[in-house]
Amino acid sequence: MSVTAETLRRTPLHDRHVAAGARLVPFAGWEMPVQYEGVRQEHLAVREGGSAMYLEALRSYPNYTGESRIGGSLPAGRHAV
Q1: 42: domain range?
Q2: Which pLDDT score is estimated for 6?
Q3: Structural domain count of the chain
Q4: Distance (Å, rounded) from C-alpha 78 to C-alpha 40?
Q5: Is residue 72 part of a domain?
Q6: In the predicted model, is pLDDT for residue 66 greater than 90?
Q7: Using one digit for the tens of pLDDT, what is the confidence trace for 22-40?
Q8: Is residue 77 part of a domain?
């Protein structure tokens, strides 16, 4: 069975992604955002600020455990929220 735009599932944040100008693509049966402004701009935003990933779509993968891991170090003057 092929997945069409009509059969893709959408996250609760879908409308916000569309409003923010996201480029959406099919991913594991979901319509997911992959890019907003461009690779370079987004890379710099994550390096200078931070990032979060919505994990709901990963539930369809058999090896997904639902565990969260946070690691890395923060630049001087930055604090975890």
Answers
A1: 14-60
A2: 73
A3: 1
A4: 22
A5: no
A6: no
A7: 999 998 899 999 888 888 9
A8: no
Backbone angles phi, psi at 9, to 5 degrees: -80, 155
Give me the count of residues in the chain: 81
Q: How far is CA 19 from the centre of its chain?
A: 15
Residue 65 lies in a domain: no
Report the run of H or E that residue 56 belongs to, with start and end: none
9 against 71, higher pLDDT: 9
* Torsions phi, psi for 37 (to 5 deg): -90, -40
Assess contact for 33 and 22: CB atoms under 8 A: yes
pLDDT of residue 14: 93
Which residue, among 61, 62, 5, has the nearest Cα to 32 in the 3D structure? 5
Residue 55 lies in a domain: yes
Backbone angles phi, psi at 57, to 5 degrees: -65, -25
Structure tokens at 58: 């990963």
- Tokens, residue 21: 């100008």
